[in-house]
Amino acid sequence: MIINDTSLPFPPPEGSSCKLCPKDWLLHGNKCYWFSTAIKSWEWSCDDCLMKRAQLLVIHDREEMVKNVLYSTVWIGLNITSPERMWTWQDGSPLPISDPEKENNCGSVKKNKILSEICQTELKWICQKAAVLV
Q1: Domain-by-domain residue ranges, the chain?
Q2: Where do runs of H (alpha helix) occur along the chain?
Q3: Which one of 30, 67, 111, 131 has the fewest CB atoms closer than 10 angstroms to its CB?
Q4: Across the chain, how many H-helices and E-strands are there?
């Protein structure tokens, strides 16, 4: 027996959708989050997220930080890449912080505070990606 969409008694309402995340990822809002259990450098953590087709956590507002309640320090997608020594999120948006320490070029977060870290420090990390709408 073949069942097609027109034979279903109650089709989903117009515009409704379901949000899905990969296995071992957590859905919150429109994003999926993956929390590491290992500890690695910022660059290694960034590469790991890229291999997962994601990026390190980018925080654009306080809600983003609060919904990822953190009890240990973790890497986020924030670093200094330009000669002007400006903090920049992985999505290209700036973070207005002045006078970063010369050695501390990578960003981390603990609870509700963004911290400046030496990039070779080994920490846990959080990857994020958009949820798939089906």
Answers
A1: 19-133
A2: 42-51, 62-66
A3: 30
A4: 2, 11
- Rounded to whole angstroms, the Cα distance separating 122 from 42 reads 7
Q: Is the dihedral of CA 111, 95, 80, 34 positive or negative?
A: positive
Are the C-beta atoms of residues 38 and 127 closer than 8 Å to each other?
no
CATH architecture of 19-133: Roll (3.10)
Show the tokens assigned to 7: 């034979």
Please name the residue that has the structure tokens 């500890």. 39
What digits encode the pLDDT tens for the residues 49-86?
A: 999 999 999 887 666 555 555 567 889 999 887 777 78
Rounded Cα distance, 103 and 49, in Å: 24
For the stretch 5-23, pLDDT in tens is 444 344 445 555 788 999 9
Residue type, 43: E
Q: CB pairs under 8 A, 24+ apart, for 79-86?
A: 79/42, 79/105, 79/106, 79/107, 79/119, 80/105, 80/106
Reduce the DSSP state of residue 58 to 3 states and report it.
coil
β-bridge mates for residue 60, sequence order: none
